[in-house]
Fold these 2 entries.
Entry 1:
Amino acid sequence: MVLSEADRFEFIGLNFHNLSLVRAIDLLEHFIQSGSPHMVFTPTAELIVWANENQRLKDIYNCTDLLTADGFVVHYAARLCGKPINEPVSAVRLMFKFLEVASKKEYRLYLLGAKEDIVNKAVDNIKANYPAINIVGWHNGYFDFNNDAKIISDIREKKPDVLFVAMSSPLKENFISKNLEAMGVPVCMGVGGSFDIIAGKYHLAPMWISKIGLEWLYRLIQEPKRLWRRYLVTNTKFLCLLTKELLKKRED
């Protein structure tokens, strides 16, 4: 699968891929067939803000093999700036869709991240929903990142086609980029809080809420104490970055 210039666009300092969910799945399968390791990330508005404050995170995103816009907030903001984005492709929806494909094609999966009870419950629920799924290993996300040789060795020995990494940012980005070659997994994908949703701890926003750009509010209602300050700050910063992007567009 060859990507053209029409399949890419630059927005607030990041180089995104402009693919539909279906084409993104096709590209993941292409990565698997190639056998070589690839990184996949889906920055939200919050992560776009963080990437513009953290050069290391920005560099990782800009050398990612598949980088899609997560959420309709980013989708509408990019369209407002004249960017040719067709649809948002979020981590959780990309993962859910790929699980359907993986269960039919027997792709080997490894889940890494979240607390022990959450990742165990996520594995149980995935197996219950997809009896033919081939999960070759899993591990919680609470370990010493400076001494992760045993986890890397386990992943390498299990030889998954896809590694789902459910950690906060920039932990997941740093972990994947640092160990990409050592793990040798064709698809290493950051999926944020997806395991929490699969395990039933939190709920995925209905599509109609996502489409009006309020997915962040739906999440905030579920975790108000942890997220209210973070969303207040990052949403404000994102609006500032968007304003600068719009002003730059007018100057051009």
Entry 2:
Amino acid sequence: MSEATLREDTLRPSGAKLLRPSRISERQRALLSLLRNKGAVAAIVVLAFIVGAAVFANWVAPYNPVEVAVTESLVAPSARHWLGTDLYGRDTFSRVIYGARLSLLVALAVTAISWPIGLVAGMLAGFFGGRLDSIVMRLMDILLSFPTILLAMAIVGALGPGLLNSVLAIAVTWIPFYARLARGCTLSVRNAVYIEAARSIGCPSRRIVVRHVLPNIMAPLIVYATLRFGTAILSFAALGYLGLGAQPPTPEWGTMLRDAREFIRLAWWLTVFPGLAIVITVLSINLLGDGLRSALDPRLRLER
């Protein structure tokens, strides 16, 4: 037995065990930080219920959302119809549940289209710079010069009202936001030590971008995409309210609000419950995004 081991055994109290520092990965540390955020945990629980109801809408909704029952027109909330019925006797609760499915799918589709395009465009522009950077950023500036909702309305007006055209319109208007963020994050890491080291050993540019740049800019882009997910629901509801989104009788929150505006005093439940669905869903997504930002940013994690 070495002298250092004998000295350690002598100084250690009897029965005491040597404590070794625990090895916690960065992902585990971020997850623990997220779970300590009460707002984020509450948002996860609420979103789990909303997503579950949307996925299993065929079993959760008690009625067909498009089935007309004129004899039950404008029935107030009751044991038979929990959230009342609309002008055509359609069950509001069932339409809100199916509207959640449609809104979540649209937000997912918008993010799936705009996020990768903006990420690739901004990352390549920031890494290579020069003429590519100028062309990409000037194109993004042109798109950003128009108010988002007005540009989406113009695109839908040109393509025609409908679900698919609404998705494409919202996705096009969001590409510049992701591109500018990706470019800024890329510029912050382009001249980092590990990038210079990769260049010095002869790594090709595409390998540097994929293996070194992309992983180090993903965290802020994931957080931003989460926050924009809620905005996608709002944008789709706005287009539906204006008659440019999903067309009747498709159950959609914005369309439901548009159809109910003539009955605000006569049937309050037609505006209250779809509006609450939008508020609760978007608020939960924003709280989750804020929690992810705190969990993925080491500086904010230390402040908590």
